[in-house]
Every structure is written in structure tokens, then in C-alpha cells.
Design a protein that fits this description.
With 202 residues, the protein is an alpha/beta fold. It has a single domain, classed as Maf protein (Alpha-Beta Complex), CATH 3.90.950.10. It is built from six helices and six strands, in the order E-H-E-H-E-H-H-E-E-E-H-H. The chain has a six-stranded mixed beta sheet. The chain is globular. Bound molecules: inosinic acid. Inosinic acid binds next to strand 3. The site of inosinic acid (IMP) has 14 residues, from strand 3.
Length: 202
């Protein structure tokens, strides 16, 4: 069976995709291939980071592989936090000692948006795939708005303040099953999987 390395240490993400592609591909996480060194991720766009990670691992291991990068883009903040979503509060030293990143990130986001009436935002995921030496890009996106306060206790990251368009529950109030139907990550993975299931080498 054809092997495909997923440039992530997140076993959960790797197993999720493996389950969908169980007949076509064997998905290997970086832990599966015993790759422990850091993977560079220092571009200034989601596309740049996903592509950089995928090519880096491809060159290191000489294998077909893919990498992802996600972020929250807020219109009134000109697309911030975007590629810096994971460490938004750290950029300006706004995280207290022992405070989870997501708590500090949301506090900073709400402060930056204080008084703003345009609260439109989207989550975006980019997946870069390197297959037979060629690169393919897949994008998943979910539009919504940033609430003025937290609502819900599930999920992770910015979920408690993100209300997807057309819904009354935030991502933090949805079950994982509900979120997985509409989420940026799920949509990008679906595009990747659809492509891989149809792919035949030239
Ligand atoms: P990653 O590329 O999947 O690691 O995502 C980068 C960062 O974007 C995360 O650390 C979160 O801050 C934010 N993020 C990405 N996806 C989500 C989501 O589904 N809910 C909430 N925050 C997210």
C-alpha cells in the first residue's frame, strides 16, 4: 500500500485521516517515522507554512507527504491573527505565567476588537501535498463572526468566540461531530481525500 507522511506530531490528526483513507494509503505521522527534530514554520502565510513544512519533510525523508496550517482571519484586524493564531498573545507579551495560550489569545482578540461593529471572520486551513515530486494545495474555509464574549466550554483555541454563519451555537458549543461537518479543517481534508482517492500517477 502506498505510504504518505503527514508532517505532524499530532497523532489524533493523523489517525483521523488514516481512518478515511484506510484502503488506499498508509498514513505515517512524524512519530511513526521516528522524526523528532523541529520542522520549520516561519513563513508569513498559511500557504507558505504548509508548503514549507511539506517540502522540508519531503527533502528530509524522500517520501510523499503533506502538511497543514490553520488560522483565524478577522476582517477588521486586516486578517490578523492569521498565521500567528497559535501565539497571538505571545507576540506582544500579553500572556500571564501559567496561563493557557487560548485564554490569553482570546482576551487579546476581544480587546483588539473592542467597539468594532464589523466582526466578520473566518477560519482557514491549507493543506500542501507533495506527491510524485509535484505540489498540490487544498483549502478549507468557514465564515462566521467573533462574539463580544466567550460562549461554550468545548473545543479549543478560539472556538468559544467563533459563531459560524447560519448557526446559533459557537464552535465551543457544538459536538465534535457537528463541528467536523462544517469546519475549515474537515473541508480541507475532504478535498485532499477526494483528490487522493482519484489520483493515478502519470
Ligand atoms: P494549527 O495549524 O491547526 O495548529 O492551528 C493554528 C492555531 O489556529 C491554533 O493553535 C488555534 O489557535 C487556531 N485554530 C485553528 N483551528 C482552530 C479551530 O478549529 N478552532 C479554534 N482555533 C483554531
Amino acid at each position: 500500500m502506498q505510504e504518505l507522511v503527514f508532517a505532524t506530531h499530532n497523532e489524533h490528526k493523523a489517525r483521523e485521516i488514516q481512518a478515511i483513507l484506510s484502503h488506499e494509503y498508509r498514513i505515517l505521522s512524524l512519530d511513526d517515522v521516528k522524526y523528532q527534530d523541529p520542522v520549520p514554520e516561519n513563513e508569513n502565510s498559511l500557504e507558505g507554512n504548509a508548503s514549507q513544512k511539506a517540502w522540508f519533510i519531503h527533502h528530509r525523508l524522500g517520501k510523499d507527504c503533506f502538511a497543514d496550517d490553520s488560522g483565524l482571519e478577522v476582517d477588521c484586524l486586516n486578517g490578523a491573527p492569521g498565521v500567528y493564531s497559535a501565539r497571538y498573545a505571545d507576540l506582544t507579551d500579553e500572556r500571564k505565567a501559567d496561563e493557557p495560550a487560548s485564554v490569553a489569545n482570546i482576551r487579546k482578540l476581544l480587546a483588539q476588537m473592542h467597539g468594532e461593529t464589523n466582526r466578520n471572520a473566518r477560519f482557514r486551513t491549507i493543506i500542501a501535498l507533495i506527491l510524485d515530486g509535484k505540489e498540490y494545495i487544498f483549502e478549507g474555509m468557514v465564515e462566521g463572526e467573533i462574539l463580544e464574549g466567550r460562549k461554550g466550554s468545548g473545543g479549543f483555541g478560539y472556538d468559544p468566540v467563533f459563531l459560524p454563519s447560519g448557526y446559533t451555537d459557537t464552535f465551543a458549543e457544538m459536538s465534535l461531530e457537528e463541528k467536523n461537518i462544517i469546519s475549515h479543517r474537515a473541508l480541507a481534508v475532504l478535498k485532499l481525500v477526494t483528490f487522493l482517492k482519484k489520483y493515478r500517477p502519470e
